[in-house]
Amino acid sequence: MPERPRLPKLLRFMALHALWGMVLGCGVLFALIWTDTFGLGRLLSQDGSGLATFVLFFQMALTFGAIQMGVAVMLLGDSKDDGPDSDPD
């Protein structure tokens, strides 16, 4: 049986970190709604269509996913790099 093609390593890295960021964003929003922070839970419960809740979850997931990808890329540096003042030898 032929082997399935896999995503390149960098794309898998980015997708995994984006997924974790999206999960974190949805978790944070769920906690904000559950604890009714700033009356958010009460306000969203008054929306009959659920569109506001969907939009909030989508935007939080998108924002946290992008932030997590950015942080992951910034932390990709070489492990031998000790900073700008390190000796190049």
Provide tags for this entry.
3 helices; 89 residues; mainly alpha
H-E string? HHH
**What share of residues is helical?**
55-70%
Query: Structural class, from helix and strand content?
Result: mainly alpha
Low-confidence parts: none
CA radius of gyration is 20 Å
Major pleated sheet:
none
Anisotropy-based shape: flat
**Total count of strands:** 0
- Total helices: the number is 3
Provide mean pLDDT, rounded: 89
User: Ends: how far apart?
Assistant: 49 Å
Beta-strand content bin: under 5%
Transmembrane segments: 12-34, 54-76
Keywords: Membrane, Transmembrane, Transmembrane helix
What's the structural blueprint in terms of helices and strands?
Elements: H1 9-34, H2 40-45, H3 51-74
Helix pairs in contact: 1-3
Characterise this structure:
By secondary structure, the chain is mainly α. 63% of the residues lie in helices and 0% in strands. It is built from 3 helices and no strands. It has helices at residues 9-34, 40-45, 51-74. The longest helix has 26 residues, at 9-34.
Short description:
This protein has a domain at 48-73. Helices cover 63% and strands 0% of the residues. The protein has helices at residues 9-34, 40-45, 51-74.
